[in-house]
Structure prediction request, 446 residues.
Amino acid sequence: MTQKSWQLDRRTLLRGAGATLALPWMQAMAWGENTVEKLPKRFCCVYFPFGVAVPAEDNPARQWGWFPTGSGADFKFTNVLSPLESLRENVTVIGGISHPHGWSMGGHDTGDIFLTGSLMKNGVFSNTISLDQRIAEANGTDTRFRSLTLSSDGGVGEPTRSCTLSFSREGRPIPALSSPAQIFDRLFGEETGGTIAQQRRQLKNTSSMLDRVLEHSKDLNRQLGADDQRKFDEYLSSVRTIEQRVDRAEAWLEIPKPEISRDSVNAEATQQGPKDYIKAIYDLMYLAFQTDSTRVATYMIGQVAGATTIANAFPACLGLSPNWHGLAHGAGKSGGIEKLGRFDQFLAQNHASFLTRLNETSEGEGTLLDRTIVLYGSSNSKTHNNHNYPLLLAGGRGLGLTHGQFLKYNERDMRLSNLYATISNRLGVNEERFSDSTGEMSDILA
Prediction:
């Protein structure tokens, strides 16, 4: 595909009189000089806790259940996922699969392994690399941020009560950002610390200090016992992560961030106003993809610890009570299915708006959604039930995926890691398997 005369490179800068200015993102900033093969490949995952309502087919409240009726291409959304109707040809609903390693874990524990498929039980809290980080390794070299890790609670939480979906290759949790203002400033805010020369000196000083720490660590490590060595290795892993961020910051130092108006997102939103907050997080992920600031993003709407999660109180924004955890437990009682279903519908409305924005933004001969694979779901079906995950896969039609279907599997024949292996292969990850995968999920391939 040749570049049209009106198309600009996304990193076009205005230079003159010793100054360098970044242009705001404009429709003219296409990937004109690149072939389709060189267009970005992206991945996004959004997770929600506590499961969904799964009423029997003959239940009068069936329309407030999460899963559609029917199957294959002949399916109908219930009230819950009805906001996705206009996106029908861009989404696939998947039921019946899960992580086999999660079957023997506690119902509150499986959020940690949603993107890893690892086994964490009997006091062993070691995890493995998450799907997003594997994809980031393959697709993150050309963007300012290799990945964007977000959650409503922020930080990392604790083992089996994680507040992040993302885990490093060593299986260590990657801290999530939760403040829209902080996320906006990280993506688009002005760099602080003086002139570029001063910032470069500061980064070099930091890098030098880290080098000395790592050099000294070799001598210290030899003096420690096995348990202390393990703890020390975890500490050194954190130091190396900082070292990588310093190197990356220096490489991008002279490339200004995209100029995005702060008015384009409600950066002051907080978790105390869930409607504004969730929308702001989705807006930020959209802008991060639109400006090619990153190609990988995860958002944990809430973790599964119940009483301690910030997002646990979110249903109150719709006048629903008790808290989210309580709604999930009440879904098996009279009237409880509709109450949980109404909140799940609210979540689906926000997700549908995000997918619609991606689908309405042109890129090359297609849209942002065509080059972005978006996974949405939970690691419970009914609350605390670690089977039959509610899953929605969207986008990626320009990457070889097909949609417009409701796929129902037997978990003994198909596992979630097969879906992850399929996604990985479409996004250029050079590893045949993911976790305990046994092959690809061919039903989602065009």
About this structure: Residues 40 and 371 are 7 Å apart (CA to CA).
